[in-house]
Amino acid sequence: MDMSLDFQPGQIVALEHGDRNLYAEVIQVVVSRQLCWVRPLLLVTFIEESSVITDLRDASDLLWHINLFRPAVDTEVITLLSQVLAKESKTEPDLAAKQQLNEFIYQLWQAYQNRDE
To answer: What average pLDDT does the segment 81-104 reach?
Structure first.
């Protein structure tokens, strides 16, 4: 059985593409359609020995194919989340962060469309 079908609400999962990882919280697994409903938390771009973290907690939820997610390891997420949670909350939506999420999803979608051709 595919391990991804065992995702539980509240679990943190990762969606990887290139040098970027999207970390999100599972809201619900739609087994019949092989989809995972997630709430984005962070988009991390890995640059050489460091990383750029984009806070996506105000972004829209996402429905994506369940088999593309992997469980996130606690040790990889705790440090990243602590950096974001230490900052003050924003009073207005971060449009640049939402645009980065849209670009990431578009690039991921394009990569998997090209793979199936």
So the answer is: 78
pLDDT of residue 100: 92
Virtual CA dihedral for 50, 10, 86, 102, nearest 10 degrees?
60
Tell me the three-class secondary structure of 16-56, residue by residue: EECCEEEEEEEEEEEHHHCEEEEEEEEEEEEECCEEEEEEC
Among residues 55, 46, 49, 104, the alpha carbon closest in space to that of 82 is found at 55
Torsion sign (Cα): 100, 49, 109, 40: negative
pLDDT tens for each residue of 10-63: 999 999 998 999 999 999 999 899 999 999 999 999 888 888 899 998 889 999
How are the residues of the chain apportioned to helix, strand and coil, as percentages rounded to the nearest 5? Answer: 40, 35, 25
d(CA 2, CA 23): 20
Q: Please, which residues bridge with residue 40 across strands?
A: 24
On whether the CB atoms of residues 12 and 77 are closer than 8 A, the answer is yes
Mean pLDDT of the chain: 86
